[in-house]
UniProtKB/TrEMBL annotation:
<feature type="domain" description="BFN">
    <location>
        <begin position="4"/>
        <end position="136"/>
    </location>
</feature>
<dbReference type="Pfam" id="PF02577">
    <property type="entry name" value="BFN_dom"/>
</dbReference>
<dbReference type="GO" id="GO:0004518">
    <property type="term" value="F:nuclease activity"/>
</dbReference>
<dbReference type="InterPro" id="IPR003729">
    <property type="entry name" value="Bi_nuclease_dom"/>
</dbReference>
<protein>
    <recommendedName>
        <fullName>BFN domain-containing protein</fullName>
    </recommendedName>
</protein>
<dbReference type="InterPro" id="IPR001943">
    <property type="entry name" value="UVR_dom"/>
</dbReference>
<dbReference type="Pfam" id="PF02151">
    <property type="entry name" value="UVR"/>
</dbReference>
<dbReference type="InterPro" id="IPR036104">
    <property type="entry name" value="BFN_sf"/>
</dbReference>
Amino acid sequence: MDTRIKLKVLGLTYSQVQKGAYALVLAEENGPRRIPVVIGVSEAQSIAISLEGIVPPRPITHDLFVSFSHGFGIRLREVCIYKFENGVFSSEMLFDDGTREIRIDARTSDAIAIALRTRSDIYVMQNIIDEAGFVYEENEGKEVVETEELPEEKSLSNCSRKELKERLEKAIASEAYEEAARIQDELNKRDNNL
């Protein structure tokens, strides 16, 4: 069986890759790699509510789902991001009711919104974090570079693969995850066109 890596949710940032979307930043629990997942506005709002510990006056959809499953004695054991294809992450949720286990396919954003509410573990397959993950290194005494200050002398489509990887490393080092996601998308497009 393939190795799985445990993840934690670092937070959300506005996505420059897709207008009107956000990037959910996931990180290895005990490692330097990060994975940005582009998600919609409503899912980002739901995740933000959970991360901030806000209790809305009426349950939103993810809260309703958790209440429903708990009401019937079903618990979410874990979420696993099992596939990355054409820039899209696919996840499955493992539920149990005490007598049987069931796996359900889900959008990664929904699965994580529910996992946060149930304090369930989140995993990613090793091959996916190897392909879509960014290595994050602490800036020990180095000045942090903002996204806008990254070199823009060439558009991404005009950069060589080597230049893209260098820009990706700079974006990650400066925690410019939106820029990193844009660069990773360009690399993924090139890989898919091969």
